[in-house]
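Ticket closed. Logging final result for DUF3592 domain-containing protein.
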Amino acid sequence: MLVLGCVLLLGGLIAVLAGAMDLRWRRHVLADGVSVFARIVDRPLGPDDSPDGYRPILTFTTEDGRPVEVFSPRRLTGEAVLVHYDPADPAQVVVHGSRGRRVDVAFVAAGVVAFVGAVVAMVLVG
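Final structure:
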């Protein structure tokens, strides 16, 4: 039981840290980043790609004229979406309205539950 408690404790801590770091990064890009519209375009499948793993790309131009292409979290090609990018690293984008924040909050919440559950279990056993 002690080993399980330690695993839950560590897993919970990792989940909390991962979610919190991504929330912090997302907040930074939304607050200090640049907003532009990007277009979702088809990406030709490579020889190592499977049709099930296909992901289109987001393409946009930075304020200083650099073209950027990154994988798109959405699949609807031709759609224009608002993205926020980090001027220091334009490949770091947050798609406006994406579910990323909810996923990060869920990671933090699950991590807290695992962490507290592990502490309670270890106290009850010990």
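Residues 2-32 form the longest helix (31 residues). No further action required.
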